[in-house]
Design brief:
Radius of gyration: 19 Å
Shape: elongated
Number of strands: 10
Distance between the termini: 40 Å
Strand content: over 45%
Largest sheet: 4 strands, antiparallel
CATH architecture: Sandwich
Order of helices and strands: EEHEEEEHEEEE
CATH class: Mainly Beta
CATH topology: Lipoxygenase-1
């Protein structure tokens, strides 16, 4: 049963009200930086990373496979290397919930190690942003996965 509410001269359904109160996820972006002093452990150009963001119910919120190929992450001034993630259509703020999980998978080419920080931002159509940060993460050919 759809509840109808009059606002002024307009008739709104409860479905329309909930859509207005539950903004859609419009974009996701992750930025990686190399901590000062760790330039020797930079990501090489032939190494890639994959990023997956899911809610607590394991629903995909954003992802990108094998990004960063061709980029050398080595800037000691903490210059960011930013990448847009793919957001499935129709994901709402309520589906994101109170928290989300980030997974970063390392795809090294040979003997490689990377130390980095990250900033992940999820943006909604009403201007809200949810963010997650991590620092001092180390991945290598021996440790390929980071979960937070």
């Amino acid at each position: 049963m759809t509840r109808r509410i009059f606002v002024g001269t307009a008739l709104l359904s409860s479905a329309a009200l909930s859509a207005a109160d539950d903004p859609k996820l419009t974009s996701a972006r992750i930025t990686f930086t190399v901590p000062k002093g760790d330039e020797k452990d930079a990501k090489e150009e032939d190494t890639q990373v994959s990023v997956t963001v899911k809610n607590k119910s394991d629903q995909m919120l954003a992802s990108k496979e094998r990004l960063g190929g061709g980029d050398l992450w080595e800037d000691a001034n903490e210059k960011g290397f930013s990448y847009d993630l793919t957001v499935p259509p129709g994901v709402t703020r309520s589906q994101v919930g109170d928290g989300f999980a980030l997974q970063i998978r390392f795809h090294p080419n040979g003997n490689d190690i990377i130390k980095f920080n990250y900033h992940l931002a999820l943006r909604f159509e009403d201007g809200q942003e949810l963010a997650k940060d991590g620092a001092g993460i180390v991945l290598s050919q021996f440790k390929l996965l980071y979960n937070n």
